[in-house]
Structures are given as C-alpha cells and as structure tokens.
Backbone:
C-alpha cells in the first residue's frame, strides 16, 4: 500500500479501525489489529521500499492508477499496461449467457472480498439504512470466510438489526457468482484499494449498477461508464443516498467500459516489454 495521499491513508486506517471495532470490540485483537495496520502502512510507504523499487530496471503495473497513487516519480518509472487484466472469449460468453437469463430479485450484492480494505463494515452500514426503506431486501456477500470470522460477522449483523438479512454463501463457482450479480438490483462496492476491479467490470457487463468510492483505480479505468456512480471516499451517507436513488429508479442505463483487453493481448505486451529490456 505505497500511497502518497495522506487522506487516502487515513481512510484506509479508518476502514481497518471500523473492522476491528465492529468484530473484535474491547479485545486485545482489536488493539493489536489497529496498531498493526498503522505499522504496515508506514512500512509499505517507507524510503527503504522506495529504494528497493528504484533498483529494478523494469516496473510493470496493471493500471495507471498505481503509479499515480505512488506519486509523480513512479508515474514516469512504471509502465502501466492500462489495463493489465482482461476477459477472454470464454468469460464473455459465460457473462452473456448469464445476463440473458438473469431476472432481478430483491437483493443487493457486496462487490468485494469480506475484509476491511474492501469496506465491508461500511457496506453493512449502507445496507442497514437501505433496509429502512426496503424491509424485505437482503445483502449477499460471497467469498471464503472461516467459521470464527463468519460467526463474528453474523453476530455483528444481528447487533445492528440485520439478523436474517445478510447472506454469506461462502466461496462459490464463478458462474454462480455471475448469477448473483446478474440477478441483484445493485452492487455496493466501498473498496478503499484496487488496481482495476473485476467486481465493477463484471457487474457492468452483467447489467447491474454499482455504487462505489471515488478511488483512483475506478476513476482511471471506468471514467464515463454508465451504471457506475462514485462518491467521495469515506462518504457512507453519500454512498447510501446514491444506492437508494438507484433502487428507486426504473430506468437505469448500464454499459461496460470501453477499454477491456483480451488476456493474449496483455501477455504479448508484457513479453514485448521484457524483450526490449533484455535486448536493450
């Protein structure tokens, strides 16, 4: 997490603080987790890490946002594949099939991993407010969660009035995750850190709108994409307002981003960069 922007670092720390306070209140793990977050963020942005990176002849990133996040020196040093992730024909075919068969149901999908950096606790805060207007709606969050953490999450959900409204199906096959997204009314994605974000890419391709934080990765890679609404990072109230606006709208235009590469194109670009370095 080599990040030059002080406010961005503060938002990341706040996200981890929310996580530990919600799930481990009053425990040693809460205090240790908060302290470790600050230490890791300081180390990752340290001069020693910068010196190590300067020792390499070639630095490649999957997004222009990475160099931007690191600072002006790195924007010129790092070669961004822009983007360095993509979809192959099998992916696109599967997405097309699932989207054509999708039927919107009364649930929302949390778009990221179930962890602090993806803003899971903030996602629950947004969803809690949504349930005041949509009493029957549920929140689905896929992904592997160990039994102990699952128990803590469900306990916290019950404590804030979301008992029976949070669904944690665990790790699911990709096609099943696609079905969840295609059938959802909305994807909530309060992520604090990304390089490109498959969660947003898949949702837009599957015809489901997304509300998210205005972090560099989403600005750089999804600017102008219809169906994606961005709010200032950390603005939970703003995220909630946009989510409610989408849920209350009958006509929402959604379109996938224009620049999506195929994996073989990305591989050729990487090979070309390495060949230039070796032959140079």
Residues:
């Amino acid at each position: 997490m080599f990040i030059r922007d002080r406010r961005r670092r503060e938002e990341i720390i706040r996200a981890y603080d929310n996580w530990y306070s919600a799930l481990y209140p009053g425990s040693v793990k809460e205090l240790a987790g908060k302290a470790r977050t600050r230490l890791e963020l300081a180390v990752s942005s340290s001069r020693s890490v910068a010196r190590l990176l300067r020792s390499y002849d070639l630095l490649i990133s999957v997004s222009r946002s990475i160099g931007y996040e690191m600072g002006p020196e790195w924007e010129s040093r790092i070669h961004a594949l822009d983007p360095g992730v993509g979809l192959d024909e099998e992916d696109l075919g599967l997405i097309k099939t699932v989207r054509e068969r999708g039927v919107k149901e009364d649930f929302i999908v949390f778009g990221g991993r179930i962890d602090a950096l993806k803003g899971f606790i903030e996602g629950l805060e947004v969803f809690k407010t949504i349930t005041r207007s949509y009493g029957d709606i549920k929140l689905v969050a896929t992904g592997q969660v160990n039994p102990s953490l699952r128990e803590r999450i469900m306990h916290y959900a019950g404590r804030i009035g979301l008992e029976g409204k949070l669904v944690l199906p665990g790790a699911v096959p990709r096609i099943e995750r696609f079905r969840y997204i295609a059938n959802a009314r909305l994807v909530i994605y309060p992520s604090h850190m990304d390089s490109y974000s498959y969660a947003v890419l898949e949702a837009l391709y599957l015809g489901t709108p997304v509300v998210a934080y205005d972090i560099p990765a989403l600005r750089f890679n999804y600017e102008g994409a219809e169906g994606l609404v961005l709010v200032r990072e950390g603005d939970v109230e703003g995220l909630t307002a946009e989510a409610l606006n989408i849920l209350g709208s009958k006509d929402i235009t959604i379109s996938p981003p224009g620049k999506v590469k195929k994996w073989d194109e990305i591989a050729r670009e990487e090979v070309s960069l390495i060949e230039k370095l070796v032959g140079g």
In short: The longest strand covers residues 138-142.
